[in-house]
From TrEMBL:
Transmembrane segments: none annotated. It comes from the Bacteria. This is Delta-aminolevulinic acid dehydratase. One of its GO terms (molecular function) is porphobilinogen synthase activity. It catalyses: 2 5-aminolevulinate = porphobilinogen + 2 H2O + H(+). It comes from Symbiobacterium terraclitae. Homooctamer. InterPro entries: ALAD, ALAD_AS, Aldolase_TIM. Catalyzes an early step in the biosynthesis of tetrapyrroles. Binds two molecules of 5-aminolevulinate per subunit, each at a distinct site, and catalyzes their condensation to form porphobilinogen. Belongs to the ALAD family. Keywords: Heme biosynthesis, Lyase, Porphyrin biosynthesis. It holds the Pfam family ALAD. Pathway: Porphyrin-containing compound metabolism; protoporphyrin-IX biosynthesis; coproporphyrinogen-III from 5-aminolevulinate: step 1/4.
Length: 326
């Protein structure tokens, strides 16, 4: 007869008790689904670097939004691919740009959809950098006005939230001032606060055609070895008026998510980025992993680290699997 009195396995015997004592759970309400908007009509073009994801035009994206809503995902993050690019990224703040038109299209058909827009210039500039270039350097301060114009144009088109991803110093304050000045005090800012110069972005750059034409983004995105610096960046965004702060990427930076969660009493988002998604898809395609279990385990890891919000290309799959579990 055993002398054991403490048996943790008692609370693991079946699914009912495991659910009862589960410390962290992923919900469909936690998810934001990234979508890519392209010019034209009738466009549904699969993105080779992101299997199962597509470039959508403002008309065809409605089918994807409808499917997303049926699965219980209510929030989408829009990225734009302009018809043409120039040195100052004018397509980003064009009142009739691809993102602006997509917002109007979605809101007209599905007003309940919560639309968040990525605010950056990299997809729109001919050089692929996130701001105005002077020589071979991104010039911080002149860029702020263009970012503010971009955010304002999104709000005017009907965006519910704007999300600056450029990592320019002072951009949250510039955007907050522009929104407030034009009567958009109620439009929140989700700041890409701790955004690292990461190798995990490769598939996105192919999807958004946003690779830099020269150099790299390490002069404005964060150096991957740094964690204390992330807290400083987050603090500055909070002081400038950010409503939600984000850590990007997520998987290799769970310690940063945890540090931010412990230090700040604001909602914390994480971005499960393209490289993380593509690695799972590639391994699953070769039969090396159980995709569903791997993805759900990763989502739980983000929640355990302290993320309130998860931006992920797996959003529809996660929502479908959660429905099946119900």
């Amino acid at each position: 007869m055993s002398n054991l009195t403490v048996r943790p396995r008692r609370l693991r015997r079946n699914e009912a008790v495991r659910r009862l004592v589960r410390e962290h759970a992923v919900s469909r309400d936690d998810l934001i689904y990234p979508l890519f908007v392209a010019p034209g009509t009738g466009v549904k073009r699969e993105i080779s670097s992101l299997p199962g994801n597509y470039h959508w035009s403002a008309d065809t994206i409605l089918c994807e939004i409808e499917e997303m809503l049926k699965l219980g995902v209510r929030s989408a993050l829009l990225f734009g691919l302009p018809e043409s690019k120039d040195e100052v990224g004018s397509g980003a703040y064009d009142a009739h740009g691809v993102v602006q038109e997509a917002i109007r299209s979605i809101k007209a058909r599905f007003p309940e959809t919560y639309i968040i827009t990525d605010v950056c210039l990299c997809e729109y500039t001919s050089h692929g950098h996130c701001g105005i270039v002077k020589g071979e350097t991104v010039d911080n301060d002149p860029t702020l006005g263009l970012l503010a114009r971009t955010a304002l144009s999104h709000a005017e088109a009907g965006a519910d939230m704007v999300a600056p991803s450029d990592m320019m110093d002072g951009r949250v304050a510039a955007i907050r001032a522009a929104l407030d000045e034009h009567g958009f005090q109620d439009v929140p800012i989700m700041a890409y606060s701790a955004k690292y110069a990461s190798a995990y972005y490769g598939p996105f750059r192919a999807a958004a055609d946003s690779a830099p034409a020269f150099g790299d983004r390490r002069s404005y995105q964060m150096d991957p070895p740094n964690a204390r610096e992330a807290l400083r960046e987050v603090e500055l965004d909070v002081l400038e008026g950010a409503d939600i702060v984000m850590v990007k990427p997520a998987l290799a930076y769970m310690d940063v998510i945890y540090r931010v969660r412990e230090a700040f009493n604001l909602p914390v988002a994480c971005y499960n980025v393209s490289g993380e998604f593509a690695m799972v898809k590639a391994a699953a395609a070769q039969g090396l992993i159980d995709e569903r279990r791997i993805v759900m385990e990763t989502m739980a890891g983000f929640k355990r680290a302290g993320a309130d919000i998860i931006i992920t290309y797996h959003a529809k799959d996660v929502a479908r699997w959660l429905k099946e579990e119900e």
